[in-house]
Design a protein that fits this description.
alpha/beta, 6-stranded mixed β-sheet, 6 strands, 10% strand
Length: 372
């Protein structure tokens, strides 16, 4: 594990990241939210700290850890469907070995959220008899799925309890930091239990470039802050260093649908117009994404297999990444007439969409701490 940790640190600081510096993304409304959260922490009977299961450590808010450690807390590793199922249980064990309750969840799954609520009720049992009103605080960095979790909790709670007042749902969006106001949601009677949603909070200055790139890759930081090409280069560096493309060897001999068939649907998934972006994916879109993912995996496998350099050498790894970007232009059906910058931007955008949708497979980017 130590060797891999050293390798990923080197990847993050590779030449293609030169000049990027430390990533800062701390809007004014988030600074105000941090103060509000500290106030509410004192009132909370239990805290649900939502983290991204793909980055169980990087998605923790370091500024609040000391305060959170003194509260009843459940770490909810959300987006478990996008995380490596062979490793996620080891992360749960890691937190539980430190006497910290932890549960991997999918905020969009009713059964998964119900399991979390059961644990919340179990942890609150010791204070239910003492207090008529209990507060559960939900915290986490941007885009880890807090609002989706809040909305699902509300749906489940209203089916269990006669909640009288109208409840405004949390705002859910694809961009980090969209839930700006702290709002309360009554989820139970006798005793009254309120779940408080909070805006996403990120530390003012991310401690190192690797943490910043991991958070950017999982969508916790706006792409425009870091740069899509930079994030995509980091993704390819991680995939290559882990030798992930070798797992896609079966695709090399698979029959991919004809380019003519694919071109019929390609414009529907990655449209240029704002109006098109708003419409829902249809069957042809889903087929296109599936086929695009196959072609991208096939291309990365072939370029990796043909690579004869040394991945330990920074310059050679960069050369492989450059070659993969060039080869991916064909997989992404980019017109030869497009400029270099346009082609790089399009390849980067499509790579990030596929990764974030889990189409390149489930991953955990953080390294499990060495407890030996």
């Amino acid at each position: 594990m130590g060797g891999w940790a050293q390798m990923t640190k080197r990847i993050a600081e590779m030449g293609f990241n030169a000049g990027g510096g430390i990533i800062n993304w701390f809007p004014g409304h988030m600074a105000a939210a941090t103060r509000a959260i500290r106030e509410r922490l004192r009132l909370a009977d239990l805290v649900i700290e939502v983290r991204d299961a793909r980055v169980p450590l990087s998605s923790a808010n370091e500024d609040l850890q000391q305060a959170l450690s003194s509260k009843r807390r459940i770490i909810a590793l959300n987006k478990k469907d996008l995380a490596n199922p062979n490793i996620i249980h080891r992360w749960v064990q890691h937190f539980e070995s430190g006497k910290q309750d932890c549960l991997s969840i999918n905020a969009h799954s009713k059964s998964s959220v119900s399991q979390l609520l059961t644990l919340v009720e179990l942890k609150l049992k010791e204070v239910i008899s003492k207090e008529p009103t209990l507060l559960v605080l939900v915290v986490g960095v941007p885009n880890v799925g807090k609002s989706a979790l809040i909305n699902n909790i509300h749906r489940i709670a209203t089916s269990r309890f006669p909640v009288q007042e109208k409840v405004k749902h949390a705002t859910v969006g694809p961009l980090p930091g969209v839930t700006k106001d702290i709002a309360g949601y009554k989820i139970a009677n006798r005793p009254s239990i309120y779940v408080l949603d909070t805006p996403g909070v990120l530390v003012p200055s991310i401690p190192d470039i690797e943490t910043g790139l991991r958070l950017a890759l999982t969508g916790a930081i706006k792409d425009s802050v870091v740069g899509e090409e930079r994030i995509a280069q980091y993704l390819l560096a991680v995939l290559n260093s882990r030798k992930t493309p070798l797992h896609w060897d079966r695709l090399a001999n698979e029959r991919i649908r004809s380019a003519h068939e694919l071109d019929k649907t390609s414009a529907d998934v990655f449209p240029d117009s704002t109006a098109r972006k708003r419409r829902q994916l249809d069957t042809s879109d889903v087929l296109y994404i599936k086929d695009l993912a196959k072609e991208v995996q096939q291309t990365l496998y072939l370029t990796f297999k043909e690579f004869e350099g040394n991945l330990e050498e920074e310059g050679e790894l960069e050369s492989l990444i450059d070659a993969q970007f060039t080869a991916l232009r064909k997989s992404c059906r980019i017109s030869p007439q497009k400029s270099y910058d346009e082609a790089q931007a399009t390849v980067s955008k499509k790579l990030l969409i596929l990764f974030r949708a889990g189409k390149l497979g489930p991953f955990i980017l953080d390294n499990l701490p060495d407890t030996s």
